[in-house]
């Protein structure tokens, strides 16, 4: 009997234990990943910016106080029709810069004069909201603008009258995530700050409260 029991124990030990399946990516994990982005500018808006705007413009309804709704980063790539590989590098760069995977923009209509076919890739774009939006705005103000050579502030003439402000950056190297050794060519991008402001004055006041620098004229 003792021999049989010993054999059974040895057999049981030889059988490897079943591996537990790795838990699926949960919503909790996703929230932790988002938390890795700075939340300082969202807190700044709620604690400082909103109160300052309400005092300056005399809003009686707190829902009228302007806020940043989204930030859109767009890069047009005309050379993509001849060299599709630049799309892949742009997707990687804009993804690193924004912290979010961009989409590839396609041509809506064929243009024979420029040898452009419908649905051909011509650029990349990404829209940031919430935590990533505030983190990107913080990076622009505290890091990117300071890395632009001879930067004297943004133009005060680029407001569209509907609460939006658009400006262009000439190259991607002003972002710390981009390595100089991996850049084959300087490529710029346009950045649109979309707000809920009703006028250019309100929009400018909102962005200035976050530290966005504007030239005098």
Q: Which features would summarize this protein structure in a list?
A:
217 residues; 5-stranded antiparallel beta sheet; 5 strands; 6 helices
List the helices and strands and how they pair.
Blueprint: H1 2-14, H2 27-35, H3 40-57, E1 68-76, H4 85-98, E2 103-106, E3 121-128, H5 130-147, E4 164-169, E5 189-195, H6 200-209
Antiparallel strand pairs: 1-3, 1-5, 2-3, 4-5
Helix pairs in contact: 3-6
Give the overall pLDDT as a whole number.
81
The strand order across the widest sheet is 2-3-1-5-4
Largest sheet: 5 strands, antiparallel
User: What's the tally of helices?
Assistant: 6
Number of β-strand runs: 5
**First-to-last CA distance:** 98 Å
Structural class based on helices, strands and sheet pairing = alpha+beta
Radius of gyration: 25 Å
Detailed description of the structure:
By secondary structure, the protein is α+β, with helices and mostly antiparallel strands. It has helices at 2-14, 27-35, 40-57, 85-98, 130-147, 200-209; strands at residues 68-76, 103-106, 121-128, 164-169, 189-195. Strands 2-3-1-5-4 form a five-stranded antiparallel sheet.
């Amino acid at each position: 009997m003792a021999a049989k029991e010993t054999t059974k124990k040895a057999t049981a030990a030889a059988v490897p234990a079943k591996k537990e399946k790795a838990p699926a990516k949960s919503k909790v994990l996703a929230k932790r990943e988002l938390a890795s982005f700075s939340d300082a500018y969202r807190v700044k808006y709620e604690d400082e910016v909103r109160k300052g705007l309400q005092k300056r413009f005399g809003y009686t309804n707190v829902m009228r106080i302007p806020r940043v709704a989204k930030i859109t980063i767009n890069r047009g790539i005309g050379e993509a029709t001849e060299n599709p590989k630049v799309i892949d590098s742009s997707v990687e760069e804009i993804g690193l810069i924004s912290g979010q995977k961009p989409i590839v923009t396609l041509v809506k209509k064929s243009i024979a004069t420029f040898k452009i076919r419908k649905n051909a890739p011509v650029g990349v774009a990404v829209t940031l909201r919430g935590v990533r939006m505030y983190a990107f705005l913080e990076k622009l103000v505290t890091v990117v603008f300071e890395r632009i050579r001879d930067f004297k502030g943004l133009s005060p003439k680029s407001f569209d009258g509907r609460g939006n402000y658009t400006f262009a950056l000439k190259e991607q190297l002003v972002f710390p995530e981009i390595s100089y050794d991996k850049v084959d060519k300087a490529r710029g991008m346009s950045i649109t700050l979309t707000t809920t402001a009703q006028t250019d004055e309100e929009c400018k006041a909102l962005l200035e409260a976050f530290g966005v620098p504007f030239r005098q004229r």
